[in-house]
Specification:
This protein is an alpha/beta fold. The chain has 18 helices and 21 strands.
């Protein structure tokens, strides 16, 4: 699943690895003398010659079971938990000796991976390191920032959404001496994950896109989420600079840091921004120090993230013209507010969903003016990891949908159907009320039936928004609609 590196150069010496991880090297003296690895993998299927293999222990699988396979595929170094010592000495050591592999026994392979990654990052003291986190918009903001900053600097950035406790450490092993700026996304789904990632990267700059309710079912409260996201600033020295949205309810809390400075970004606080014009599906036009810029991503939420990027880019010394080039060259990522124009329009937003992102999407959708005689369709799928707030949040989304101007609303999943039954029972029946259809099952058969029904209903000029958590796999519906419309994902 994950591997990085691939060049012939050695990433860390044996001494550096042992110092960083507190590990114990097991192997022949010759193997220790020739110790080297040029890539890192946590999945044995992606191991190649000269690779460091890090077996992770999960809820259902123990990666130590794949060490033999990794060695046979060419791994030159392997981490292993000390509680697997007997297994290593009795079953793996003979093969490792034969192949010239060094086993590093550590207390915990995940934390050893993080510690080794931190030591690797420390080898690049001149790299300008930037972290990006938030409940929504992390990946889009990272891609915007990369597009802008690479107008002036040589940039390394997280690929895709490799932003987790394992993803970020793997990502930083891609840093090379030619890079001037590193932009890394930081996600979380448990307490102190952002703290751990910050200790790996030690960013000099950080952006928090917003404090929402994503993972509130895991962390327990929005206050806890804010405290966790704030840890992106925890490794700042006095030169550190953080950027947060001016209108966020936690702005004052986020600004209270022991070192560095955290400042706001937004329509009134990002320097030089004026003459803002909402272009609907075409994005947002604005001036930056008299330079006209058109952000080709629709929605207030995307514009807010762009202003965070502008604020940080100005701090890094980029010109308004460089920022314009970077912002205007960005394209929507698959599944994220991707507007597909054909005989009718599909807004595909199936990558993920929580209260804030879904609320913003519905509000944006509701504000889009359409030609007379055309209709709006709203397809909403369940949001996950909301804990005890799930019913309340889904009910709020149903109310927003009811008032969005949609002609037809499709509610998919147990949570949305429960919310729909509760909310709609109290709604007055009026002539222009939307028609609401519900389907509790997200199995392929039922989703295929919904897609078929929609394909028979939509007409030229209509607008369809498809929004839901990734686990609902609503791209099954969006792809059918896009194909029917003759549009594309580009």
């Amino acid at each position: 699943m994950v591997s990085v590196g691939g060049t012939a150069e050695q990433l860390l010496s044996l001494e550096a690895v042992l110092s960083a991880t507190g590990g114990e090297a097991v192997g022949t003296e010759q193997a220790k003398k020739t110790f080297s690895f040029s890539s890192v993998a946590t999945d044995s299927r992606n191991v190649s010659a000269g690779c460091l293999f890090v077996p992770l222990v999960g809820e259902f699988q123990d990666g130590h079971a794949y060490i033999r396979s990794a060695i046979e595929k060419g791994a030159s170094v392997v981490f292993a938990d000390t509680n697997h010592r007997d297994f290593i000495e009795q079953q793996i050591a003979p093969l490792a000796a034969e192949k010239g592999v060094v086993i590093i026994l550590v207390a915990h392979t995940l934390y050893a991976l993080q510690d080794a990654a931190r030591a690797y990052v420390a080898q690049f003291p001149n790299l300008i390191k930037i972290g990006v986190t938030g409940s929504n918009g992390k990946t889009t903001t990272k891609e915007l920032l990369k597009s802008v900053v690479e107008q002036k600097y040589r940039v390394i950035a997280t690929e895709g959404n490799f932003n987790s406790e394992t993803g970020l450490p793997l990502s930083v092993f891609r840093i090379r001496k030619e890079h001037q700026v590193g932009i890394f996304e930081m996600g979380m789904n448990r307490v102190d994950e952002i703290g751990e990632l910050s200790r790996v990267l030690c960013p000099r700059y950080g952006i928090i896109t917003n404090i929402g309710t994503a993972h509130v079912g895991i962390l327990g409260s929005q206050d806890a989420i804010a405290a966790e996201k704030k840890k992106i600033f925890s490794q700042f020295d006095d030169s550190g600079r953080g950027f947060i949205p001016e209108a966020d309810a936690y702005a004052e809390f986020l600004k209270q840091v022991p070192h560095g400075l955290v400042q706001s970004f937004g329509k009134t606080t990002t320097p030089g921004v004026s003459n803002i014009e909402n272009l609907g599906l075409m994005g947002t036009r604005f001036d930056l120090h008299s330079v006209s810029i058109t952000l080709p991503l629709a929605g207030e939420y995307n514009f807010s993230n762009a202003l965070g990027v502008v604020s940080l880019a100005l701090e890094l010394g980029l010109s308004a013209e460089q920022i314009k080039t970077g912002l205007e060259s960005i394209k929507p990522m698959s599944g994220r507010s991707n507007i597909c124009e054909g005989s009718f329009t599909v807004i595909e937003d199936c990558y993920n969903a929580n209260a804030e992102s879904m609320g913003e999407s519905i509000k944006f959708y509701g504000g889009i003016a359409r030609p007379a005689g055309t209709r709006k369709f709203l397809v909403l799928g369940d949001m996950f990891e909301l804990g005890e707030k799930s019913a309340e949040i889904h009910q709020r989304m149903v109310s927003l949908a009811w008032n969005s101007g949609a002609s037809f609303i499709f509610l998919l999943g147990e949570a949305f159907c429960d919310a729909g039954e509760t909310v709609l029972a109290g709604m007055p029946a009026v002539e222009d009320s939307p028609i609401v259809l519900m389907e509790r099952s997200s199995a392929d058969k039922e989703i295929d039936g919904i897609a078929t029904r929609l394909c028979h209903m939509v007409k030229d000029g209509d607008l369809v928004l498809v929004k839901g958590s990734r686990g609902m796999h609503l791209e099954r519906i969006a792809n059918r609609l896009i194909a029917l419309s003759g549009g594309s994902h580009d």
